[in-house]
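Why this split exists: single-chain examples teach little about how molecules sit against one another. For that reason, every record in the complexes split bundles all components of an assembly together and asks for one structure covering all of them. Below is a record exactly as it appears in the raw files.
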Amino acid sequence: DAGITQSPRYKITETGRQVTLMCHQTWSHSYMFWYRQDLGHGLRLIYYSAAADITDKGEVPDGYVVSRSKTENFPLTLESATRSQTSVYFCASSEDRLGYTFGSGTRLTVV
Amino acid sequence: EDQVTQSPEALRLQEGESSSLNCSYTVSGLRGLFWYRQDPGKGPEFLFTLYSAGEEKEKERLKATLTKKESFLHITAPKPEDSATYLCAVQAANQAGTALIFGKGTTLSVSS
């Protein structure tokens, strides 16, 4: 199916564990983004990518790692999860000035 | 610092009661202003993009307008299915790539 898919939909992990959130898009959009959404903060940019093998930090990158070896995939890894990383994570893709298309989100709970 | 402020935080309307949501912004060069709708448990859904002051766009009961300092999302004769959180975002000229800066949103509740 065409679109942007995030997995898993829900994830519970323990403090200190590594966890990877997956994002896959079918349009071959150049740009991909990871945002986190928290009550009182709105959507905040974690990392973005302008093309395969090109990534850069956003507003809140600490504790996160990204990679983009293929245009369609943009995984987000929490190297050592902390409770402050409990959040809803959204992946999005875009072609320059066109509106972003967001995935359905991953609700991550760190206990 | 680039910033987006939405007001009110929450708005309750009766079905058919028209109103407006506000999005004020300060950016160093606006490339575009975006409106999104977000339903509970879902990702934001794109509604409009506005690029220059004076521009207007419409979709069903929604109309978005843009000035040099703010944007309004006008909702005419709303229905319960219009209940959602509406997000405003800007794309600034100095933002790397096409990254958007989001406001915190206005949660709209429309009762029948």
